[in-house]
Design goal:
Distance between the termini: 31 Å
Helix content: 25-40%
CATH class of the largest domain: Alpha Beta
Number of strands: 13
Order of helices and strands: HHHEHEHEEHEEEEEHEEHHEHHEH
Bound molecules: pyridoxal-5'-phosphate
Number of helices: 12
CATH architecture of the largest domain: 3-Layer(aba) Sandwich
CATH superfamily of the largest domain: Type I PLP-dependent aspartate aminotransferase-like (Major domain)
Strand content: 5-15%
Amino acid sequence: MINVTRTYLPSFEDYCKMIKPLWETRWLTNRGTFALELERKLKEKLELNHLLYVNNGMMALQIAMKALGIKGDVITTPFSYVATTGAILWEGCNPVFVDIEDQTYCIDADKIEAAITPETTAIIATHVFGFPCNIEKIQAIAEKNQLKVIYDGAHAFNTFYNGKSIFSYGDISICSFHATKLFHTVEGGAIICNNKELEEKVLLYHQFGHLYDDYKEMGVNAKVSELHAAMGLCVFPLIDEIIEKRKAVFELYKHELKGLNLKFPTPSSFEGYNYAYFPVVFDSKETVLKIKQSLQENEIFSRRYFYPSLNKLPYLKENQLCPVSETIAERVLCLPFYPELSEKEVGLITRIVKNGVVKS
Ligand SMILES: *Cc1c(COP(=O)(O)O)cnc(C)c1O
């Protein structure tokens, strides 16, 4: 069986060795030494000043929205995981979908201004598959219209843009450290703020809104356990190796699928890609379903990611149209992609894909 992803694990012995001291200290959560150590290492690697490690990416989004006082209409992308829209709805805001670019599948910054209403307070955009949004343009629009910017960087771990971590852009960026993501702590995430004041706020919010006996504000619980942080500390030293291996698999796929009637997201050039996913866009929904089925018959599991286009979620109040996102969502398939995927396995997968595509 080949799954769409395969969580990278340290050796069992290394993990056990890491967590052994906990049986002495009995300090298992509430910003223990492992959580703080992981935060320190992440900040150092990504050269960031204000990063808080939290329990998952969706809570990171929700806390970010609260900390920035986001209300009313929020401009967002329809091509993302449901957590992006979900956080907006859960925080009582109204998602206003702006269609995506045909090349990067990120929000189309040229269409943002037309969607701004008197109630708009923020833009929440996703760096899709680890590719950067049009950061300069979004920043300019936000400044001109006094909007907050949150980047959902769940896919963008270790992505660099103009020589800086992509998480250093916007008012707040978030990341996910879920087991299916590039870097993981089983469940986990991070909130990266652009100033100290915001960082203090999100720290407070993530631990019920209090510091010891001082109950300052409302909060939630987004704390992390030492068992999760220990997993992160075990995976952390392997990151560069993981990305190198992913790059090799990525290039193999690209080579095998050359010259077919397929589309791949093509980001504007930037250094520091992280090889987070291997998405392929086919000519039609029928082709996708046929190939997904053929793969499945060989015990190979791909994923329609992202599908559906989020403007089509059945629980939304109004029907907003995003034709580009809708057509990409119908036709996209993420092929199995992880560091240990062998040449033989890539060969098998690409043979099935080749057999299924309509000849151009
Ligand atoms: C995975 C993901 C999330 C949610 O992260 P969790 O850690 O699973 O809560 C949010 N946005 C995007 C784009 C994602 O891919």
